[in-house]
Amino acid sequence: MNCTRRDAMRLGGGVIATLAGSLSARAQAITEIEMRGTPRGERIWFDPLGLAVVPGTTIRFTNRDPGNSHTATAYHPAIYGRKRRIPLAARPWDSDFLLPDERFEVTLTAPGVYDYYCLPHEMAAMVGRIVVGTPAGAGWEGRSKDTSDVSDQVLAILPPAERIIAAGTVSWEGRS
Amino acid sequence: MLRNSLLVAGVIAATTTIASAHDEEALMNAPAGDPYVKVSDVLPLPEFIPGLGTLFVDPATLPAGPFLAYDHDGLLSATIYMTPLEELQNGVSYDGLDIGSHTVSSTDIYFNAGHPGVEKPHAHVVLFHDEKAKERLAK
Asked: Residues of the signal sequence (chain B) (predicted)?
């Protein structure tokens, strides 16, 4: 199960967000993934592109792009009918559009490989991969083998899980 | 008869000129009226986008626009067109597009990877309407 929380500071989020947040707030450190873009929007990306964490880690997505909005959206049939690219035991998430400085949190507990994308920028290959745990752990589910639902550009940019585990993080600049 | 025709033609020409000038003047200050809508009211985008300002667009003209760009004081500072590269490559042309002001001091053209409203990678064609416009729209 994943617990999600969209930042309530700007959204006036309210009770549901607060309750969901309380489920994860006592758990473990928060790891941040930033949504970034060049000033004129020539390039946009998740930073880091690849991230390895232990099960139960809360991921905070924050939009640091002052001129654009972004989403962090899991590849899953329940969200826009996409092919599943997160572990079967995981709950899919969709941050909805985050305006500059807005953020969204999700806690990932199921071990395995999670691929996600930015809804308005998937065509520009704004995607990311999170690896939770290691293949040696119980219940591990490796990366999706599907190649029919995402572009070659997206597949090419996602770092191998082994590399993410070894490095801890893989940046967009260091992806190749 | 000829004199009457010339008179009518003259009146029409004068009326057209006045209407045109009036329309352009009406767009000089935000908010741009109907059919324009503020982009941030209908799409998940910041109200003021650094480099572009506060945008208004007639939804019927998407994706190309024109997008009317206003500075923090509500002064029309640029007219922007957004043309998807794929459409251009496929032979689509965008001709006879409207313009917010007939005074243009400079033009910038650059690539944009996409954003809500125009998701496909596209070109931004930015016509600045005075020499300080770019500076006012910067942030």
From this structure: 1-21
Residues of chain B with pLDDT under 50: 1-22
A132 phi, psi to nearest 5 deg:
-105, 120
More confident residue, B4 or A85: A85
Chain B neighbors of A63, CB-CB under 8 A: none
For residue A109, being part of any structural domain is answered with: yes
Q: Which DSSP state fits B67?
A: E
Q: Are A62 and A72 in contact (CB under 8 A)?
A: no
pLDDT above 50 (res A26): no
Which residues of chain A approach chain B closer than 8 Å at the C-beta? Answer: 37, 39-44, 66-69, 97, 99-100, 120-121, 123-124, 126
Q: Do A124 and B111 touch (CB under 8 A)?
A: no
CB contact under 8 A, A120 and B111: no
Q: How many domains does chain A have?
A: 1
Task: Check CB contact under 8 Å for A40 and B113.
Answer: no
> Which domains does chain B possess?
2-138 (3.30.200.270)
Closest residue in chain A to residue B124, using alpha carbons only: A40
Residues 6+ apart with CB under 8 A from B125: B80, B81, B82, B83, B107, B108, B109
Kindly determine whether residue B49 and residue A67, on different chains, have CB atoms separated by under 8 Å.
yes
Residue-wise pLDDT tens digits, A136-158: 989 999 999 999 999 999 999 99
CB contact at 8 A, B97 and B84: no
Going by C-alpha positions, the residue among A118, A115, A149, A102 that lies closest to residue A45 is A118
- CATH number of the domain that residue A75 is part of: 2.60.40.420
| Minimum-distance CB partner of A123 among B50, B52, B120 | B120
Judge whether A175 lies within some domain.
no
Instruction: Please check whether residue A88 lies inside any domain of the structure.
Output: yes
* 8 Å CB contact of A100 and B46: yes
Q: Collapsing DSSP states into helix, strand and coil, what is residue A9?
A: helix
